[in-house]
Batch of 4 targets.
Target 1
Amino acid sequence: MREKKQSKRLIHIDLLNKTLNVQSENITSEQLSSIKKVVQILDFITNAEYSNMHKIYGRKEDDQFFTDLTEFLINDDKWQNITNKRREEYDKLKKHFHETKDRDLQIDEYLYLIEIKIFKK
């Protein structure tokens, strides 16, 4: 069976989480907080939005793009606000799914719904 290729957004999140796990003793609390903030933002950015950012940056090398985007998201209020609203909406929908359908709503399902909504506009 062929394994599904992991999205670059998820690879980026994994790399940041590995940095937190491996380098936690070597980074300041401010850096730690910044990395956690970026992970929280990336959790609620769709793959399509992430791909668009990749195109905008025009970077061929993923490592450099990951670094550039991480630095950008640390100080970007727009994406912070968007993803905070999405997180709140997701939590409400997740609760609703659990109560009415007796199942959990996965983040990937929620992001898929957002992508459909964006492309219908």
Target 2
Amino acid sequence: MVNVEDRLYEGIAQQAGIAGCTLVDARMVRTGRAVALQVFIEKDETTAVTIEDCAAVSRQLSLWLDVENPIHGAYRLEVSSPGLDRPLKNLHDFERFKGSQAEIHLHGLTQGRRRLQGELLGVEDQKIVLKNAEGRWTFALDDIHKARLVPQW
């Protein structure tokens, strides 16, 4: 997986906003020789993303990408909702999904652990708080490599 550069990410976020949605995440994914720009959007915290929302963002992004040409080479544009296992990207996400199960991958080891799963307790003093059977854990956002919700069935 290749990170989307900050400037490109900001442009994608702006175009999603013009189409009435909020950018959750964007990434370039390579599978063999094919490259896809995957864009994950949400409408707002209470409204589900529809196929029409995805189409509107796709149209808006396609126009912008054609004009700005920020990606060199061929790629496929994919726009969708983030799904039940949505990524958690900022402090607002960690607070918003307080009470949910989450999986957190850290950049380095914390008490011998690089990956933790448990219940999100929210954000306290700009630190993310997670609770599991082993105890209570706190992390700075910068300590987290990636985080996602874990769907409960």
Target 3
Amino acid sequence: MEDAAAPGRTEGVLERQGAPPAAGQGGALVELTPTPGGLALVSPYHTHRAGDPLDLVALAEQVQKADEFIRANATNKLTVIAEQIQHLQEQARKVLEDAHRDANLHHVACNIVKKPGNIYYLYKRESGQQYFSIISPKEWGTSCPHDFLGAYKLQHDLSWTPYEDIEKQDAKISMMDTLLSQSVALPPCTEPNFQGLTH
């Protein structure tokens, strides 16, 4: 009799303790608890809050700051491009001016065949005609018959260099000739060379 009454007493104790009833033959479902074993796995504040207005403000500030940085970077790059364009425009203007000058000098009257590498002296008659001569004002001395306008050197590309720029232009041409005449020597070994890096 006592054994038969034991299960009843046990069921009563379980019911008073709030144990869930069995779900069929498969057993009971596990109860949900926010702190299993006394430890919180997630933050209830972050999982249950509807939204923090401060986060939206911070996000908007971040987007605005990014826009400002992007605008500043684009402005800096455009400034560099504008400076390059201005420099190219100045170079283009100088090229056109030099081409116009060279064309005019090639149409100046001259009784000799002009040869590249020589310096020619430009004079102007009383009639207004301009002409080239191989005689310099120094060679004429005080008996120079006409007004001296300038001296030019005929380059091998048939361009003209003013007398005051001849030395600088010759230095540039000499440097370019030196670079073009140098042969590019390949290293004897294409494998990595660690000489001097190891003890």
Target 4
Amino acid sequence: MQNSTCQAVGECRVPEHAVLPQPLYREVVQFIESLPQKEGHLVTVLHKAQSVFGYLPIEVQQFVADHMEVPLAQVYGVVSFYTFFTMVPKGKYPISVCMGTACFVKGADKVVHAFKEQLKIDIGDVTPDGRFSIDTLRCVGGCALAPIVMVGEKVYGNVTPGQVKKILAEY
């Protein structure tokens, strides 16, 4: 662990200038300590960290690197390689539109456009109130329901641009 970047807080070492809440760091440390071994579990730990923090900024990546005893470059390499990891904050209700072949052919691009118009943001952005963000996915494996939209973990199938306003109203 790099003492120059961490400050002791109970059983957990958080970055000295941590912007994110300290209890969240403790949750990640407890998860790491529950593993039978650290080796081979970096992706699992990053999933946990992202579920706890909502995203993986460099501060969290350094924290994970320190506690997993791996170089920051290795953590960054994993985070930047896999598309399910994000280094930027998402909205409270992240919207993901599938752009796989079946979804695209059935109008997913028009659905994306409708979300962008309703929320007045672009892909990758977050609404000013922090409620929504929009991203696209390659394929979610539900081609029979194309086009598919996910809001958080909730899946919507056969979505049309006309349904976008109703979907947003649920949140």
